[in-house]
Amino acid sequence: MTSFSHLSPEIQTALARDMTIDITTTGRRSGKQRRIEIWFLNVGGAIYITGSTGRRDWYANLMANPDFVFHLKESTTADLVATATVVSEHDERRSVFEAATAKWYRDQEPLERLIADAPVLEINFS
Questions:
Q1: Is residue 1 part of a domain?
Q2: Residues 6+ apart with CB under 8 A from 107
Q3: Tell me: the pLDDT tens digits for 76-112?
Q4: Residue 43's domain spans which residues?
Q5: Angle, vertex CA 100, rays to CA 45 and CA 44, nearest 5
Q6: How many domains are there within the chain?
Q7: What pTM, to 2 d.p., does this model score?
Q8: Which of 48, 94, 101, 104 is most deeply buried (CB count within 10 A of its CB)?
């Protein structure tokens, strides 16, 4: 599990309560910076980015270059340098998708399909 106790209290609160962020990734082919809006999940104090099953450019970019910027923009604003790590362990993937914060994803697709096929990245902050 990652820790973000080294971050300011405002950022810690945002990571505990907010959901919508932007991320800036590096294009895997172009090398250009790409910024998109996405949700993040706080599951037991660990921060994850996930998505529905299927191809995701942001995921492919992070697979090629896991360093990115995590932009808080709801309760506070901050640009956090971060690194994404693929979550492949079945039980951890299950815990992410069974979390209350992941209900929207479960409403879109069956839980077992999400566990097997959806992108899941754990986020570590510098």
A1: no
A2: none
A3: 999 999 999 999 999 999 999 999 999 999 999 999 9
A4: 9-125
A5: 15
A6: 1
A7: 0.94
A8: 48
